[in-house]
Amino acid sequence: MLVNRDLNPHFFDWPSLIIYINMLIQAMTAVFDKIIQHSSYIHLTKPIIEQAMGVTYAIKPTIVFLGRLVTIIIGVATVAITYFSGKQLTKNVYIGLAASLLVAISPTTVSLNRLITPDSYAAFFSMVVLLASIYVFQRGGNIEYAIAGLGFGLAISSKYNSGTILVIFLAAHFLRSGIRGFKDIRLYLTILMGLIVFVLLNPYALLDFSEFQAGFISTGQHYATGHAGMEGEPFKFYLEIMWLTGGLLYILSALEIIRGIITRSRDSILLSSFVVVYFTFINLYIVRNERTFLLLVPFLCLLSASFFVKAYKYMINNKYVVIRKYAIPLIACIAGLTLYRPVTQTIDNTASLTKPNNRETARVWIMNNLPQWSKIALESYSPFIDPKRYTVYGFTRIIDNNPNWYIENSIDYLIFCQGMFGRYYYDPIHYPKEAEQYNSFFSLLTEVKVFPDADYEVRIYKLDKRVIYK
Predict the structure, then answer these.
(1) CA 236 to CA 243: how far, in whole Å?
(2) Number of neighbouring beta carbons within 10 Å of residue 442
(3) Is residue 173 within a helix (H) or strand (E), and if so which, with residue range?
């Protein structure tokens, strides 16, 4: 966009907010470099070399660092806004503190807030809508409606699925106004404001409507029809994610939803409205992943904290002496169990990043062992191969061509990575054709080196140009 001076991203699988933010980062970096180098020209350098999907090298690491830093700041702001939302909704500072702590240690939020993706943006702006909606529910002032509209526009400018956050604003509006809420012009102005903000931040949604429409529809179709390695049994998948990353935390949030319904707690109903609608929504699609679940995490943490604090108050004020006597040790035990799984998972995930995975090990081995100027074909998520030492050809999947095609194009080595082949090869029930294709490659070619790993297995094979493969 900077080099071509074309603000049209020509990519609409995501909304454009994160694209423009990172474009601005790159532009500012170029200007800063000009000042440091005392140059009369602004040199726009391509920030990365990409050989295939997930196979990249940062030419300008500062740009990647700054893009990630913005995401981290947004993640920290999400923790803060969770605190204010809990405190404001329940008028209890401890609920706000407990909820923000749970968000801060969540493996889902910690891992995704390291990356340059729109998911963290969507989560933050969805929380802005929540906080504004709480004020709409409690006060109903014009400024609260305006902030809700702004947050709604920013949320859908981050990721399309976060448009469902409108549910919480509608719940707040009608919980306050009842059926008369339909006559309140601010309801419609808030929604209109959100749409206007979206258009301002995504101008080519109108200026290049046909391309925007194609990208938007293809994204929906993609989630509805499948993505290899991320499809099937969404309800089971999300329950497993909740147990593995939260354990008791999400059980408490479910109990708070039930408690809110039974007691008709308007606070809990307000929070639960989005959780129920969004969880139902994401289970309608065959594609499922942890990124899609991220929007729910702060809301579930608020519900969990609310149940925990209210349970504590109920126990210490109970009329039965035995319950009051054991209230503190029991609550301490529940707190420990609630924190245990998120804390240990986050620590383990973070610690794993300090150790080289097999993609890096394989990269170094290739550089030291494969003949210089060899022609190497690799598939997505493989190790990055030095283009100054080798001739590199990148493909989404190696199996997209047959072995003889690689022979005809004088390819010497093929590199496979579990990030791509594993989703087929290790799931032959769902992908029998692809699994057989990979198995054919592995059985026909000469194995050079295998780097086994639970997540980053890398396989290197050599082609025998004297053989005709069938």
Answers:
(1) 11
(2) 16
(3) helix 166-177
Query: CA 23, 26, 117, 70: dihedral to nearest 10 degrees?
Result: -110
H or E element, residue 215: helix 209-225
Q: Which of 183, 274, 190, 289 is nearest to 231 (CA)?
A: 289
Segment (H or E) for 198: helix 185-201
For residue 121, pLDDT beyond 60: yes
Cα three-residue angle 257-84-318, rounded to 5 degrees: 50
Report the C-alpha gap between 186 and 413 in whole angstroms. 64
User: How far, in Å, CA of 38 to CA of 323, rounded?
Assistant: 73
Tokens at residue 91, please? 């008028």
Calpha distance 48→213 (Å, rounded): 29
Q: Which tokens in the block code for residue 289? A: 């992943």
Q: CA nearest 126: which of 162, 86, 174, 176?
A: 162
How is 287-309 classified by DSSP, letter by letter?
Answer: B--HHHHGGGHHHHHHHHHHHHH
Name the nearest CA neighbour of 240 among 291, 278, 290. Answer: 290
Q: 């729910």: which residue's tokens?
A: 296
The confidence score (pLDDT) of residue 151 equals 97
| Interval 218-274: pLDDT, tens | 888 888 887 777 778 899 999 999 999 999 999 999 999 999 999 999 999 999 999
How many other CB atoms are there within 10 angstroms of residue 209's CB atom? 11
| pLDDT tier, 464 (very low <50, low <70, confident <90, very high otherwise) | confident
Confidence (pLDDT) at 369: 96
What stretches of 246-326 show up as alpha helix (H) in DSSP? 248-263, 266-282, 290-293, 297-316, 321-325
Going by DSSP bridges, is the β-strand pair 375-379/413-417 parallel, antiparallel, or unpaired? Answer: parallel
Long-range CB contacts (< 8 A, 24+ apart) of 82-87? 82/127, 82/298, 82/301, 82/302, 84/131, 85/127, 85/130, 85/131, 85/134, 85/298, 85/302, 86/302, 86/305, 86/306
Q: What is the largest CA-CA distance in the chain?
A: 87
Q: How many helices (H) and strands (E) does the chain have?
A: 21, 7
pTM over 0.85: yes
Helices marked H in 353-390: 358-369
CA 97 to chain centre: 24
| Distance in angstroms (rounded) separating the CA atoms of residues 84 and 97 | 9
Instruction: For residue 256, give Cα distances in angstroms to 129, 135, 307.
Output: 21, 21, 5
**Which residues partner with 458 through β-bridges?**
417, 451
Q: Where are the domains of the chain?
A: 64-352, 358-462
Per-residue pLDDT, 303: 96
**What's the pLDDT tens digit per position in 56-70?**
999 888 899 999 999
